[in-house]
Here is the input.
Amino acid sequence: MNKKQIQNLAENALHEACRHIQDELGVTNGFNASIFFSGEREDIIYKIFRKYIEDELMIKSYELEIIK
Here is the structure.
């Protein structure tokens, strides 16, 4: 998985998390989320998601090596 794919996955993860919260709260638009997760907050959350994705990929790779 390349960096662009990892970034896209991180962005989708944030969108899905916000959508889930909004659905549970009955929120019908994403206006507040778009403001709340902008600028530095957006950068931080994407960095956290990218690190998590990279960690999962590393573990998956390690597990595949064990199976060989």
The helical segments are 3-25, 31-36, 40-67. The longest helix spans residues 40-67. The mean pLDDT is 94. Residues 8 and 18 are 15 Å apart (CA to CA).
